[in-house]
Design goal:
The complex is a heterodimer of chains A (359) and B (407).
Chain A (H helix, E strand, L loop, with lengths): L2 H36 L15 H10 L11 H19 L7 E4 L2 E4 L8 H10 L2 H10 L3 H32 L4 H8 L2 E2 L3 E2 L2 H4 L1 H14 L11 H4 L9 H26 L10 H8 L4 H31 L7 H30 L2
Antiparallel strand pairs in A: 1-2, 3-4
Helix pairs in contact in A: 1-2, 1-11, 1-13, 2-11, 3-4, 3-5, 3-11, 5-6, 6-9, 6-14, 9-11, 9-14, 11-13
Chain B lengths: L1 H16 L5 E6 L11 E7 L2 E8 L7 H5 L8 H5 L6 H16 L5 H29 L3 H22 L8 E2 L2 E2 L7 H23 L3 H7 L7 H7 L3 H6 L6 H4 L20 H25 L17 H6 L1 H13 L6 E9 L2 E9 L7 E5 L1 H13 L4 H11 L3 H5 L1
Antiparallel strand pairs in B: 1-2, 2-3, 4-5, 6-7, 7-8
Helix pairs in contact in B: 4-5, 5-6, 5-12, 5-16, 6-7, 7-12, 15-16
The chains are: A mainly alpha (359), B mainly alpha (407).
Chain lengths: 359, 407
């Protein structure tokens, strides 16, 4: 690799890390203001403009607190858990493309940290790691409530990963690839003349199953059983405070962002432009050189990607403040007796259709 | 003997610390987000299922009943605020009713109407809180805010009536501490217009919500017979189909003149309790609307100078009245020997006061019959075999207030 490649890679990593680290406080703010808006309250509005600095103040507060470790905890695993929980979703973000490519001089710079030809597997692998911090935290804190939370969390994530995987496989059959970039370019076309050829229109059932499964994977309401505030007090992170709690908190939002990004990439055209905005770009096509036009296009793609992820995050917030929580057995019932068979049938149907009429 | 107990305890402890024994002891409370106030339940759980449970009460015991023996009848009114602090007005009125029975007096008509208004407001507040907290415990925070908004509005009305929000101390023996404010009608009309809208919103969010129905249907079911065996009253009993409401069956004040329905459920599960409470809020709003229309003019206080608290105007301008005022508050109202028991339909069920007097200004003995105590007995029973989240939702639906339970 040349120096240019290295610096491009470093910049991209910085960009993604910056987005995910910098966005989390904004997301927290967004969630709290969104919740307040739905609940006819005001929400945080004192620190900074519109209370935007509130999450920053919270972070400073959390980080400056005493980092307390319970005496009966298993020290190594107790500290390992929040570290894994923060790293796994950030690592998964690396494989998700947030734009096509920029042309800088002679070089073509893909807007993706790791161009993997089986990117989706990498994303899933890292996302699958998210079950470990919950188990480790629950076990290492040596608290019964934490343990119950960990049990709930691990079984929930394992069961929903199956439905998620099956929904995903049906989409992989349609796209015929594991490369996320190829998936996006497949979706960046029109279907029946008026619809974008997005995954959601090709296979709405898989889209729905995947959506439910990512809610369960990210432990958001109505699937926030591992935390189960009123039942298990705080569940697996009950014994965590200060910076370590902040890491768990941070991880929850990064995981949400990662899940939204993946969902968008598979079902909503990823970084493909939002339908109806292409003509604005075309106005510039004659003014700019092809290279510059590609750069402009890439930036517009990044913007539309961020916009789509933002919409998805709003959906996360919206659902959280609307629905009550499931009970553990109902959750398992939904996962194994409903989603799993439906996903299986859906997969078979897709496979048969593809076998008969081709993609 | 002692050795036996010790060996059994040690054995038990050994088996509980055994890795392969799935039964775990879990201590919920007295400091736990779902244990409203300071309730404590020790559970033996197998996975999520509660196999055995023992409830412990007394963490909020303040010897309120004993204190009554050392306070004059008026001084003890403030203690009734601290029983069920969600519906302080009902407690105030229930208590002064009993004292008035003991004195053998009847309050004026206007006073009776005002007291009915107070009790219905308290019922609305209490039910709002119960449903809101129940929803909150099951993760539906938005419903909580929708309902709490109207609770605050109701408190604003109460504040206009007596100057206090939570601990009202509004009732006095033989009357009320203040008459209604001038803008009472408009405040109440505004409240009665806005409240049903919020109730409808919450109904839309919950009643047909699949998750909510799954969480509450057939959870904590008590049959009619079980309810009667436990001696439960109030919405919980009515949800099981026990058609019993003191407002109708043992009418007091102006309830016979009012048009309202006693709401009954069928299944006696958490869902039915929720529905019964929702409908009771509507019925109470209906009663309030009638009260505002029918509220008569006239004197607020009984015409008995030994009981009536003199008006401030007279106290400051008239020497004899000042002395009289001083005597009423420093010495107290003299009550003849006798005993009285009186029950009112509090939001949680039958709330009763039993006072024994041997003459003088202080009761010889005062007892409270709190609905929460009986409700909490049934909790242990309905919790066994349920899951931990169910236990939380059952507790929320029983609406146990620690202040009233432990007294």
């Amino acid at each position: 690799m040349t120096l240019f490649d290295w610096s491009a890679l470093a910049l991209k990593i910085l960009f993604v890390l910056g987005i995910s680290f910098g966005m989390v406080p904004q997301l927290v703010w967004f969630e709290r203001r969104g919740a307040a808006w739905m609940q006819a309250r005001v929400g945080p509005n004192r620190v900074g403009i519109f209370g935007l600095m509130q999450p920053l103040a919270d972070v400073i507060k959390l980080l400056s607190k005493e980092s307390f470790i319970p005496a009966a905890a298993s020290r190594f695993y107790y500290q390992l858990a929040p570290a894994i929980s923060a790293i796994a979703p950030v690592a998964a973000m690396a494989a998700i493309p947030f734009g096509s490519f920029l042309i800088i001089g002679e070089h073509k710079v893909p807007l993706q940290i790791a161009q993997l030809d089986m990117g989706i597997l990498a994303v899933l692998a890292f996302a699958g790691l998210e079950v470990y911090p919950i188990m480790l935290a629950g076990w290492a804190s040596n608290n019964k409530y934490s343990m119950l939370g960990a049990l709930r969390g691990s079984s929930q994530m394992v069961s929903y990963e199956i439905a998620l995987g099956l929904a995903l496989v049906s989409m992989l059959l349609i796209y015929g690839t594991l490369d996320l970039n190829t998936m996006v370019s497949y979706q960046d076309q029109s279907l029946l003349g008026f619809l974008p050829r997005w995954g959601v229109f090709l296979n709405p059932l898989a889209c729905l199953i995947f959506l439910i499964a990512i809610f369960a994977e990210t432990n958001r309401l109505p699937f926030d059983l591992p935390e189960g505030e009123s039942e298990l007090v705080a569940g697996y992170h009950l014994e965590y405070g200060a910076g370590k709690f902040a890491l768990f908190f941070f991880a929850e939002y990064v995981a949400m962002m990662m899940a939204s990004a993946l969902y968008i990439t598979i079902f909503f055209g990823g970084y493909a432009l939002i339908p109806g905005t292409g003509w604005i770009l075309n106005l510039f096509s004659t003014m700019l050189s092809p290279d510059m036009f590609q750069n402009l296009l890439a930036l517009a793609q990044v913007a539309s990607f961020i916009f789509k992820v933002g919409c998805m995050m709003f959906f996360f917030v919206w659902v959280r403040w609307t629905l009550p929580r499931f009970r553990y057995d109902q959750l398992m019932h939904l996962g194994w007796k409903l989603l799993f068979p439906i996903a299986l049938v859906n997969l078979m149907a897709v496979a048969l259709i593809i076998a008969w009429i081709g993609v | 003997m002692i050795k036996d107990i010790r060996t059994t305890l040690l054995d038990e402890r050994k088996s509980l610390s055994d890795f392969y024994n799935p039964q775990v002891l879990i201590n919920m409370g007295p400091s736990h987000p779902a244990m409203h106030g300071t309730l404590r339940v020790m559970c033996r759980v197998n996975g999520e299922v509660v196999e055995d449970a023992t409830c412990e009460i007394g963490y909020l015991h303040r010897a309120i009943e004993k204190l009554a023996e050392h306070k004059t009848y008026h001084q003890w009114i403030v203690y009734t605020d601290r029983l069920n602090y969600c519906s302080a007005l009902t407690n105030n009125i229930g208590y002064v009713m009993t004292v008035e029975d003991l004195l053998g007096i009847e309050v004026t008509e206007r006073c009776q109407w005002i007291r009915v208004i107070c009790m219905e407001l308290a019922r609305i507040i209490d039910h709002l809180i119960c449903i809101a907290i129940n929803a909150l415990d099951m993760g539906a925070l938005t419903c909580f805010w929708y309902l709490y908004h109207w609770r605050e509005e109701a408190y604003s009305i109460i504040e206009a009536m007596c100057g206090m929000r939570l601990t009202t101390s509004y009732a006095r023996i033989g009357g009320m501490s203040y008459d209604l404010p001038d803008n009472f009608d408009s405040m109440m009309t505004k409240f009665l217009k806005g409240l049903p809208k919020s109730i409808d919103d919450v109904e839309k969010l919950l009643s047909a919500n699949r998750i909510w129905v799954d969480r509450t249907k057939d959870v904590g079911t008590l049959t009619k017979q079980e309810v009667m065996d436990f001696g439960l009253t109030g919405p919980v009993a009515r949800a099981s189909g026990v058609d019993f409401d003191l407002r109708r069956d043992r009418p007091y004040y102006t309830y016979p003149e009012l048009d309202f329905e006693v709401v009954c459920g069928v299944n006696g599960d958490v869902y039915d309790r929720y529905l019964v409470r929702m409908e009771e809020i509507r019925q109470s709003a209906h009663i309030l609307a009638q009260c505002v229309k029918k509220l008569p003019k006239g004197p607020l206080w009984v015409d008995d100078r030994l009981i009536k608290i003199p008006a401030k105007q007279d106290v400051y301008n008239n020497m004899e009245t000042l002395i009289h005022h001083f005597k009423i508050f420093m010495d107290g109202i003299h009550v003849g020997p006798g005993e009285a028991y009186n029950a009112v339909e509090s939001p949680n069920g039958e709330l009763a006061f039993y006072i024994v007097s041997r003459g003088g200004t202080k009761p010889w003995r005062t007892r409270i019959k709190p609905p929460s105590l009986l409700l909490f007995q049934s909790f242990e029973y309905s919790m066994k075999g349920a899951k931990i989240p169910d236990a939380v939702s059952i507790l929320g639906s029983l609406n146990i207030i620690a202040g009233e339970l432990d007294r």
